[in-house]
Amino acid sequence: MYWTLFVVFAKIGVMAFGGGYATLPLIHDATTQWLTEQEFVDLVTISQMTPGPIFLNAATFVGCKVTGTPFGGMAATLGALTPPCAIVTLLAFLALRYRSLRAVQALLAVLRPVVLGLIAAAAAAILQLVLLRHGETSRPDLLGLAIAALSLAALRLRKNLNPIFVMLAGGAIALVLHFLQ
User: Fold this and answer.
1) Mean of the pLDDT values across residues 49-69?
2) Is residue 1 classed as helix, strand or coil in its secondary structure?
3) How far apart are the C-alpha atoms of 155 and 173, rounded to whole Å?
4) How many CB atoms lie within 10 A of CB 165?
5) Could you report the per-residue pLDDT of 148-173, keeping only the tens digit for each?
6) Nearest CA to 72 among 125, 31, 17?
7) Which of 10, 66, 132, 172 is in Cβ range 3.0-4.6 Å of 79 for a Cys bridge?
8) Calpha distance 54→19 (Å, rounded)
9) What is residue 22's predicted lDDT score, i.e. its pLDDT?
10) How far apart are CA 30 and CA 24, in angstroms?
11) CA 151, CA 164: separation in Å to the nearest integer?
């Protein structure tokens, strides 16, 4: 199982262009045999809240959950780290050497909207999972929607607002409202 985790996350690592959020659809597709939809939403939440890159945090979470040991987390994390480190080393060398070429500039210009699309797809999938109560299609989670809207508004209106504060405030609001019900 350790080798399987390493290989699964190495494959994602090869395709991990665009950063952590862009990898979320890849992680989701690769872990459907191990995680429920609710566990995936929890994975995203935990990976975002803990220090470090979201992709590595997600790999560690999945590895520990699947094997029940820290060694599973280590195997998945090493799989997630190995290809990007090799690719970044190679690309850094090439970019520094050939950065003035028009082809390199054109490639970067084309990749930017692709990365935006990957992030938007991940956001749409998470929004769907968060706003529906455990997969129920008839009852949207209005509290989740309100907290998401308030969080988005707070972060857009106050550019220097710490996202950790927003997460803690959202959690506090949800807890207070839960206990008031």
Assistant:
1) 90
2) coil
3) 16
4) 12
5) 888 889 999 988 888 888 988 888 88
6) 31
7) 10
8) 8
9) 76
10) 10
11) 11
| Residues 23, 16 contacting (CB under 8 angstroms) | yes
The reported pLDDT for the residue numbered 11 is 92
User: How many residues are recorded in the chain?
Assistant: 181
The span from the CA of 132 to the CA of 117, in Å, is 23
Rounded CA separation 50/43 (Å): 11
Instruction: Match 């429920």 to its residue by tokens.
Output: 36
Residue type, 174: A
* Residue type at position 159: K
Cβ neighbours for 19, distance < 8 A, ≥ 6 positions apart: 53, 54, 55, 115
pLDDT value of position 63: 94
Amino acid at 16: A
Tokens of 171: 């959690």
* DSSP sequence for 3-66: HHHHHHHHHHHHT-TT-HHHHHHHHHHHTTTT--HHHHHHHHHHHHHSSS-HHHHHHHHHHHHH
Q: Express each pLDDT in 98-147 by its tens digit.
A: 878 888 888 878 888 887 887 888 788 777 777 765 555 566 777 778 88
3-class secondary-structure state, position 132: strand
Amino acid at 129: L
Output the pLDDT for position 98.
83
- Token pair in block for residue 135: 């997969």
